[in-house]
User: Which sequence fits this backbone?
């Protein structure tokens, strides 16, 4: 089974890359986000197997979002667009780094604190990783490992809950700061000043 990429017209005139895999009832698969691309998915063995397995029973219709993968976007070379793109990329990268750093440390702290009593006499790695705790519990006899499994599960859920609440709180603070500090325009107002015609 090969990937036959075609281009479909859109109302704006931008060709949209799409593909149909298999035969049968059409099944539209929307891209998960801007990181998705037809060619990349097809080159990843698990994704390719998924397409082939579903394609044995249905026609999988898949497309690339506008401006991603093989689908073109309308180019915008203005200063405003360049600045907006730079700010967007910077905010996303800083947000990912802070999210992993802050939320990960919050979750790890809560998990380790709750596992300290349950892991008494066991390896300290149990308080650092829920995977390690489950692995050690599985190596113990069933009666001895069951309390450790329950303790690790409860500590993990508690840590995830605190991290989620922390993330939601940070999102609310960021939204309030953005609403307070970003400029406001009236509806229908064009923030870009009109340019004088050149002779």
Assistant:
């Amino acid at each position: 089974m090969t990937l036959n990429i075609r281009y479909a017209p859109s109302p704006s005139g931008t060709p949209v890359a799409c593909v149909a895999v298999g035969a049968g009832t059409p099944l539209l698969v929307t891209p998960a986000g801007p990181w998705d691309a037809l060619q990349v998915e097809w080159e990843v063995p698990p994704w390719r197997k998924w397409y082939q397995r579903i394609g044995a029973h249905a026609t999988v219709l898949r497309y690339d979002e506008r401006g991603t993968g093989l689908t073109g976007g309308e180019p915008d070379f203005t200063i405003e667009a360049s600045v907006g793109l730079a700010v967007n990329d910077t905010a996303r990268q800083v947000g990912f780094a802070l999210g992993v750093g802050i939320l990960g440390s919050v979750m790890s702290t809560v998990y380790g604190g709750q596992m300290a009593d349950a892991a008494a006499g066991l390896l300290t790695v149990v308080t650092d990783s829920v995977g390690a705790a489950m692995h050690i519990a599985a190596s113990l006899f069933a009666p001895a490992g069951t309390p450790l499994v329950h303790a690790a599960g409860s500590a993990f859920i508690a840590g995830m809950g605190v991290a989620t609440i922390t993330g939601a709180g940070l999102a609310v603070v960021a939204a309030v700061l953005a609403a307070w500090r970003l400029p406001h325009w009236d509806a229908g107002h064009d923030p870009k000043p009109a340019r004088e015609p050149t002779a």
User: Anything to note?
Assistant: DSSP finds five helices and four strands in the chain. The chain has a mean pLDDT of 78.
